[in-house]
Write a structure and sequence with these properties.
By secondary structure, this protein is an alpha+beta fold. It has two helices and five strands. The chain has helices at residues 5-15, 87-97; strands spanning 19-27, 30-37, 40-43, 62-70, 80-85. The radius of gyration is 12 Å and the shape is globular. The two termini are 16 Å apart.
Length: 98
């Protein structure tokens, strides 16, 4: 099993279809925001590869923050469950809830 950050977050959302993760990352000095829902990742700021084997969150990405949002996600009025979670704290949440 792939243990990359992106795959771990995708696995988390498969188990929690009522949640959308909004992940703010920095890749090569540029920020991106990734939505992860039901095991799929998609960039909200740039094109996402058609091939699901191409990771949206690369291994060299720096996680700036993660927001947990109730599904369905409405960008006009998101219903936040928890905001500004660090990668370290998200790992604790994933370990606790798994």
């Amino acid at each position: 099993m792939d243990n990359s950050i992106g795959k771990r977050l995708e696995q988390y959302t498969i188990k929690r279809p009522q949640e959308v993760l909004l992940v703010t990352v920095e890749i090569a000095g540029e920020q991106d925001q990734i939505a992860i829902f039901k095991g799929f990742s998609s960039s909200l700021m740039r094109p996402t590869a058609f091939d699901p084997d191409i990771p949206v969150i690369r291994d060299d990405a720096k996680i700036l923050k993660i927001d947990r949002v109730a599904s369905p996600y409405n960008p006009e009025s998101p219903r936040y469950i928890q905001q500004d979670i660090s990668w370290e704290n998200m790992q604790k949440i994933m370990n606790y809830e798994c």
